[in-house]
Amino acid sequence: MSFLDRLQTLFSGSAPRRRRKSASTNGPAAYFETSRLVASLIFIATVVAIVFISFVGVSSGNLPVLPNQIAPVRIVASVPFSYESAEKTQQLREQIRDRVPPVFRVDMEAYERFDAGLRQLLDGFTSVDSLPPEARPAALAGLRDNFNANGPYRATLEEIKTLYSAGDATARTAVVENGLAILNSIYRQGVHDDSSLIREPASGHTEVFQIVRADNDVVQRPADSLEDALTFLRISLATEGGDRARNQSLFRLFRNGLAPNLVFDREATRARQAEASRQLQPVVVRVERNQTIIEPDTRVTLEQYEMLAAHRRALVEKGGALLEEGLQLFGRTLLVLAMVFASLLYIRLEDPETLQSNGRLGLLALVVIINLALVRATYSLGSLPFFMENTGAASVLPYIAPVTIAPLVVAILINAGSAIYMALLIAIFTSVIYGGRIDLLVLTFLSSLVAVHACRQTRRRGNIVRGATLGGLTVAIFALLIGLVDRLPLVTISKYMAAGLLTGMVCGIIVAGLLPVLEGLFKRTTDITLLELTDYNHPLLRLMQLEAPGTYHHSLVVAQLSENAASAIGANPLLARVCALFHDIGKTKKPEYFIENQRDGINPHDDNNPSLSALIIKSHVKDGVDLALKYKLPRAVIRVIQQHHGTSLIRYFFHRAVSATRPSGAVTRPPLPATAAASATKDPFTPNLPGLEPPPVSESTYRYDGPVPNFKESAIIHLADGVEAASRSLRKVSPQHLSELIEQIFRDRLADRQLDDAPITLAELAVIKDSFIHTLLNMLHGRIAYPTGEDEAKPEAPAAAIATAAAVAAPLAPTVQAPAAPAPAKPADKPTVV
Question: Structure pTM?
Fold first, then answer.
């Protein structure tokens, strides 16, 4: 008891009366559910929220792009800034490096070897002089062979004879010394051919060289090629005089000693290049405000990437000031208005029930706004200093945007059609937030579609995580493909894939956790909750098993009938089954007043008048609503409890009351005093005074309070409840008898206008009828009657005895037993329907 209740008890002396919980939607709740003003406010709030989330504070300067990616939009500088460009400095360093001539060292080894060979040849000429003339050719041939063996020389005997015939030893020595002097000068200048110019790959210089001579003298000049050196040798030898043939022979001899002698000195070249680079000052780039950093639809170069990173650092240093870009706020608002209005048109065409319910509209608006807010939160992480300085990490942010939350929630709580449109809406505005990236729009929409397809009509919370993970896997696969097309590093691609997959799993966990909250907040019921309610250990079902076992069995049969019929016409079979299981829970309050729970032939209605019995019978609806509210059953179940009898007539007690009002003789009722008349009018239980005419029977007293069924599952349960009760009183179960019985019940309910508000067609009613017949024939099948010992002694049993046995074997009909008073005549196989 609350504190106020205790005060009331203290001052009044009596405890306050408890108010019955009501499931009606009258009052403020009904106003908020159906008011067009509330719907308009939801529309305006949605537009304002989407504009604020998607556009306010969003700048292209925060777009995470990587080198070699296609830029989705033009990015311009929001503030003026300057920075030291490492890329431009490196380019200038390469240019200086190319301008530094390579260093070559002069190698005199080939000259020294040739010098030794010639001097050895001169010494051999001395020994030849002492030989007779006929022996000299052979000796000169031997000297030639020895000379050629000293190196890669190809001197001929003629060239050796030419040098030998130059004169005496002094003359020959003068010729050799002159030739060696010419070779020495050539070698000291340096000789090269193309193969000897081995340089760094970046160096393309072929004209100017730094040459380190044998005496460590460094000169910077072009080196002589081997062809130039040979020409110089020929000309130098020719200036010494002598005939042409002699000079040509000496040239051929001395050219054996000429070879390229420049050796590339890599270490010395790098040292000189490093020295030149140390003197280089870093390149400073100044960027003006509104200067274009990256052009749209172009691949981002390293220089542009560096400038974008410097721009972000400048924004951080200046307090993150961002300038408005692109469309103005008014134009962006028009864009959002158009998208939201298109959403309303889609909902009007595909799901008009959602458009008529402010609760559903509020649910759609809330999940979309929350989802976009989470996407914007991931985008805003790019403004943190870490992501500003690390663009590689910032490029992962689009793949951790949780875009599948809203589509999954809508698919489970409303329907898949609305979820698909919500997925498109989320994808569009996610693309807008990240700078109009078309690839991101397609990727997020595709992943949401995969998740929605995997989670449609799910009945387990684990399936939600599985479906969301499949959506994340879709992101990972396409991130791999897009990364390969953009030629991104494998490390970056792996980060994208891991982010997409983990985000999908996290989204599934979030949705599974949010569903119970959203179900309670917006009075929605998912198949997951319905499946949990089918547990026969539910407190209410256990209570019905113990207190009203006949009603419990009746509910099981009605649940089976309703589930099969709902599946046949495309309704929700799980919802029909759950609602049917709980539709008669109110009978647990007074189970003995319902014939399916009566035992030992005791009927409490025998001591009551018809109106009181009718009131008790009707009260099980209100008692059921009270229990449903107490145990927090879904709203759909409560609606079925209210509607499963509609406003139908409790026929038995109505006919009993009518029979009681028929006078046995003509008795004139004298006028009653005013007080007595008023009492008789207000109190339906006023006993008939002896000798007076009884008052007429009011049919409204014997009708349920309703309302009539107004959705398919409720209409199915309404029909199944009556069919199941009536079928138990059949003496003979056959397709014909069942068909006639069900047809009669359907006609009675249609004539009584019990199905006027139900969105069900005559064709669907025919399908429901066939489903009822099929189910009941399988449930009310017959059994073979095994004969007893007495029956074996008799050749035949009378037909009356067989009929009696069949009647006894049949289950008791769930109707109230009729008294001895006369009742309207009915065929034996068509009992009165209650």
Answer: 0.59
CB count, 10 Å around CB of 752?
A: 15
Q: What SS3 string covers 247-278?
A: HHHHHHHHHHHCCCCEEECHHHHHHHHHHHHH
Residue 803 has phi, psi (to 5 degrees) of -65, -40
DSSP-derived secondary structure for 70-93: BPSS-EE-SS-EEEEEHHHHHHHH
Alpha helices, H only, 55-189? 86-99, 109-129, 136-149, 157-164, 169-189
Three-state SS at 487: coil
Dist CA 418 CA 345 (whole Å)? 11
φ, ψ for residue 456, nearest 5 deg: -70, 135
Q: Classify burial at 524, counting beta carbons within 10 Å of its beta carbon; exposed 0-12, middle 13-18, buried 19 or more.
A: buried
Rounded alpha-carbon distances, angstroms, from residue 309 to 66, 198, 400: 10, 39, 21
For residue range 721-773, what is the model confidence (pLDDT) as tens digits? Answer: 999 988 887 877 888 888 999 999 999 999 999 999 999 999 999 999 999 99
Dihedral sign, Cα of residue 29, residue 34, residue 39, residue 41? negative
Contact in structure between 244 and 137 (CB atoms under 8 Å): no
Is 726 exposed, middle or buried (CB count within 10 Å of its CB: 0-12, 13-18, 19+)? buried
> Is residue 682 predicted with pLDDT exceeding 60?
no
pLDDT, tens only, 659-668: 877 665 444 3
Radius of gyration of the chain (CA): 53
C-alpha 726 chain-centroid distance:
51
